[in-house]
Amino acid sequence: MPATPERYLEVQNSEEFGRLRHTLRRFIFPTTIAFILWYALYVLLSAYARDFMAIKLVGNINVALLLGLLQFVSTFVIAWYYARFAAQKIDPAADAIYHEIDGRQPADTASDEGSVV
């Protein structure tokens, strides 16, 4: 039986859901700000510190190329770290809230054949 809209509002206002949102925001906001600052630094250095960015490090590899490649590396590291963080902190809490709404215990879902949670 599907949950009612009132039940969803009750869960949304619950302490567990508030903790889940707080945990997610505590990860998302600082990480996003750090990445935006890191990207802005790269753009500003590219625009205003051309001499610095043109410094050759090894062969034809200069500071600009290295920092540009590190943008990709940092993106993948953040994605990997978020996936790990979500699997450890977010998903278990979200699953518990889901099962509370659904009215079943987590063990019940394993016996449901063909159901997708």
TrEMBL record:
Presence of the UniProt keyword Transmembrane in the record: yes
InterPro entries assigned: DUF485
Keywords for this protein: Membrane, Transmembrane, Transmembrane helix
Transmembrane segments: 27-49, 61-83
Record protein name field: DUF485 domain-containing protein
Species classification: Bacteria, Bacillati, Actinomycetota, Actinomycetes, Micromonosporales
